[in-house]
Write a structure and sequence with these properties.
This protein is α+β, with helices and mostly antiparallel strands. It has helices spanning 82-94, 149-154, 161-173, and strands spanning 4-13, 17-25, 31-39, 42-47, 53-61, 66-70, 73-75, 96-98, 102-107, 118-123, 126-128, 140-145.
Length: 174
């Protein structure tokens, strides 16, 4: 049962997002105006070490007024490859340079309302290169034992959809 899109009109656009309304025809012939958000793709990484820990950032999200652990992730710049963006985001947000990256998963965290696409990579090591260049991104940067991930999810200290998907994927690999 495929929905047919007859048109899209912009409602608001800036350099970060494009909010639109689409004229959508449902399989039964009814039409509805559906709001959607178009965004640039993102890239991030799950970085682990040889002590069974994962590199996470503790940050506040003002939209939900909540704190939580997240993997480093951000926007892929124009012309930038997702793997390069993931490495750059880890460095900017944590001050750690990830070792060799390999694909972990691809996720569309809100595909009912947004075309947001996240490319997540995995590194098994990192080298500290200095303080984060974007210190405003995180209150704390810590190496968290992988064995603690499930407990952090259960107590809602990890709620970001992309971070949760990536970390659960990490647990499934173990």
């Amino acid at each position: 049962m495929r929905w047919q899109v007859h048109s899209e009109e912009p409602l608001y656009t800036d350099r970060w997002l494009d909010v639109r309304v689409a004229d959508v025809e449902l399989p039964d012939g009814r039409h509805l105006d559906h709001r959607l958000i178009r965004t640039a793709p993102g890239a991030g990484a799950v970085v682990t070490d040889d002590q069974g820990r994962v590199l996470l950032i503790w940050r506040h999200r003002f939209i939900t007024d909540s704190w939580g652990w997240e993997i480093p992730i951000g926007k892929i710049d124009d012309g930038e490859e997702p793997i390069a963006a993931a490495a750059r985001e880890v460095e900017e947000e944590t001050g750690w340079r990830p070792g060799p990256l390999r694909p972990l998963l691809y996720v569309q965290p809100t595909n009912g309302i947004s075309d947001s696409a996240h490319h997540i990579f995995r590194a098994d090591s990192a080298t500290q290169i200095g303080p984060p260049t974007e210190a405003w991104e995180a209150e704390r940067i810590e190496w968290i034992p992988i064995a603690e991930i499930r407990r952090l999810i259960d107590k809602r200290d990890i709620v970001s959809g992309t971070s949760m998907a990536a970390l659960l994927y990490l647990l499934a690999e173990a």
